[in-house]
Amino acid sequence: MDFELTEEQRAFAQTAREFAEGQLAPHAAQWDAEGIFPKEAIAKAGELGFCGLYAPENAGGLALPRLDATLVFEEMAAIDPSTTAFITIHNMATWMLGTWATPAVRDHWGPLLTTGEKLASYCLTEPGAGSDAASLKTRAELVGHEYILNGSKAFISGAGSTDVLVLMARTGDAASGAGGISAFVVPADSAGITYGKKEHKMGWNSQPTRTISFDNVRIPADHLLGREGEGFKIAMKGLDGGRINIATCSVGAAQGALNAAQQYMHDRKQFGKSIASFQALQFKLADMATELVAARQMVRLAAAKLDAGARDASTYCAMAKRFATDAGFNVVNEALQLHGGYGYIREYPLERLLRDARVHQILEGTNEIMRVIIARRMLEGDAPDVIR
């Protein structure tokens, strides 16, 4: 077991750090304050391959391991978790399209998405189907050589500003459950699609979030991903990687906050000396660093399990998502506390990192649902010997 990164992995991480410092850091606060979706910056990330990190090569992607992708996402999230999180969602949707789309659809959309020229949204959640995603009601009816879509989606990142939707809809009857769900590629400007108002959110303000309504939207039959009835399985495979991605964004946010706290402790003076000399604050910094390293290694372990196709990869992804998003938020919160009143004002990045990191405990499956996934596996007879 080797915990050291290769030279190539370090180079990827360094490229991502330089990109984040040059393209994200000067603008992240403004994007957050003004609700700007930085499509130009995302396209520049695409020029470096960051919009198709693990998408298949035949779709224009780099086909990197998920572990390598975490290195890129972490460096960017240390500067701007909101924009980075959208890039991770785009990567997930692009991978799904590249893996399961028909050759014609893949050949059209793959190069556009992996370069960042066009952007994708992932559409699973509905107003009445959140944690219970298998209860979704959006329908797709096959009529001749077309599917007709009706229904709605909620809390969709990028909605209204992206170019293609990776959509889960019911093709079976109302009682068909997860087995009656199929996945589709839907051009975002298709007739019959309408977008709701831009949601006003606590964080993630550099990416728009809207509801999407489908009223007799027609798409060609070859826009089906995989086969009918495989949509929920495809969605969950996407979310395994998505959970690692969002956990990585929490690790990145925590690293950015830790960096700021460490520097602030040297700069800030109280009672005639640097606050770095106060043992109580030293201990706080030590705990933050320890939790951050533990979270990072948990995420990398889960990524390695997913790359290896391990039987219990989904369990490890759930563990990593639960642990890293909780620990990451706690580290950012402690870093804000170390800054005192300065941490609460927008001149410093702490309050933005905190607001952006908070939603990570909710999306890609709430942390309560992560516990359900983990507990179900741990109650199986072999689990104590296998999950270690």
From TrEMBL:
InterPro entries: Acyl-CoA_DH_CS, Acyl-CoA_Oxase/DH_mid-dom, Acyl-CoA_Oxase/DH_mid-dom_sf, AcylCo_DH-like_C, AcylCo_DH/oxidase_C, AcylCoA_DH/ox_N, AcylCoA_DH/ox_N_sf, AcylCoA_DH/oxidase_NM_dom_sf
Acyl-CoA dehydrogenase/oxidase C-terminal domain span: 229-379
Pathway the protein contributes to: Amino-acid degradation; L-valine degradation
Cofactor: FAD
One Pfam family of this chain: Acyl-CoA_dh_N
Keyword Coiled coil: no
One annotated GO biological process: branched-chain amino acid catabolic process
Keywords: Branched-chain amino acid catabolism, FAD, Flavoprotein, Oxidoreductase
Keyword field contains Oxidoreductase: yes
Domain of life: Bacteria
Matches recorded under Gene3D superfamilies: Acyl-CoA dehydrogenase/oxidase, N-terminal domain, Butyryl-CoA Dehydrogenase, subunit A, domain 2, Butyryl-CoA Dehydrogenase, subunit A, domain 3
Recorded coiled-coil stretches: none
GO molecular function, one term: acyl-CoA dehydrogenase activity
Record-annotated Acyl-CoA oxidase/dehydrogenase middle domain positions: 122-217
Domain Acyl-CoA dehydrogenase/oxidase N-terminal: 6-117
PROSITE patterns: ACYL_COA_DH_1 (PS00072), ACYL_COA_DH_2 (PS00073)
PANTHER family: ISOBUTYRYL-COA DEHYDROGENASE, ISOBUTYRYL-COA DEHYDROGENASE, MITOCHONDRIAL
Protein family: Belongs to the acyl-CoA dehydrogenase family.
Name under which the protein is recorded: Acyl-CoA dehydrogenase
